[in-house]
Amino acid sequence: MTKPEILLIEPMMPEIEKQLDAAYTVHRFTSLAQLKDIAGRIRGIATGGATGVPQAVMDSLPALEIIAINGIGTDAVNLKEARQRNIHVTTTPGVLTDDVADMAIGLIVSLLRGLPAGDRYVRDGEWGHKAAPPLGRKVTGKKLGIVGMGQVGRAIAHRARSFAMPVSYTDLRDLELKDYVLIFTEN
Predict the structure, then answer these.
(1) Is the CB of residue 42 less than 8 Å from the CB of residue 63?
(2) How confident is the model at residue 134 (pLDDT cuts 50, 70, 90)?
(3) EC class of this enzyme (predicted)?
(4) What is the distance of C-alpha 140 from the center of its chain?
(5) Domain containing residue 181: CATH number
(6) Structurally, how many domains does the chain consist of?
(7) Which of 55, 90, 125 is the last residue of a domain?
(8) Strand (E) positions, 76-121?
(9) Checking DSSP bridges between strand 88-90 and strand 42-48, what pairing results, if any?
(10) pLDDT in tens, 1-32
């Protein structure tokens, strides 16, 4: 039995590509010209949220059944056309929410406390030989503004509570979140 054929729009982690290669005949996208001979056999696309699917690629694949996005963004996919053509569009919601929120809080702490300068000071052997870099600013109690209170925004806000940070947010609508202050909405 032949494996279904898919188009990989953007490179992914080696482990993911290995799994795709095991389950499918994977064509790695390089140009529209490459699709000329295989377009009618491509049933699926694997891509990233930021890259999505260029309209010209979507237009050239008559047998396309699914677009699998390794991420949560769908802005770079023509969802209206996908619906009209009965093409399923999937994402991986929640998979990296905690990781992104952890990284955001880590970057906030690193920036305010001046961790890169301190790290460089120690690694360069300056400890005890030169004046120490500034200690940085206190994180606890700082005001935090979040643009977009989706899954990641809420996860960051939740972590910010551990630092007693008052949180204000903007979003497309008032989410009526009692613990956070809405400062702007477009609706």
Answers:
(1) yes
(2) confident
(3) oxidoreductase
(4) 27
(5) 3.40.50.720
(6) 2
(7) 90
(8) 88-90
(9) unpaired
(10) 799 999 999 999 999 999 999 999 999 999 99
